[in-house]
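Lab channel / #folding
Pinned by the channel admin:
"Please post every new chain as: sequence first, then the structure tokens as a reply. Keep commentary short and put observations after the output so the thread stays searchable."

First post following the new format, from NK:
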Amino acid sequence: MRGVSNILRNHDGFSVIETLIALSLLVAAIIPLAVLLQVGLRTTVTTSTRMHAREIGSSEIDKAKSMTFDAIGINSATIMYSTATNGQQVKQENGYPGWASNETVVNGGVSYTVTRDVRKVINSSRANSSSTKEVIVKVSWTAPEPAGYVELATIVGRTDMTGS
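Reply from TO:
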């Protein structure tokens, strides 16, 4: 019996090898969790950035809707014509009078570039061919990564539809 108690006394606690194996298993389990946490944080930042950009764009669209029809439009910029898929001709007018075509807005520590475009929808089958305008607001950012943009559009029409 005496020999058995000596054997038990010599094996109390953990050996160095057992401790190293336990630590390596713990590290192997923690590394994927850390990567998952990093991906989740990056997704949260991207979603927050996109949400702020959408709020800025929505605010710009609301400003355009609050303006009079004639106030939205030509600032002697380059005008381009193209034919839309529905056969309508689209006249593009860059910018609003009194508003810069490009503007930088800082929100939540992120710099956003706001670009505004106005396109007159010209329908050759209507007597009043300039009664609607498409307002397009693009809000873009380069940092934080990944860079991206949000684009919002609305149609603004004459309230009286007389075309004057």
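NK: The first helix runs from residue 2 to 10.
TO: also worth noting, The radius of gyration is 31 Å.
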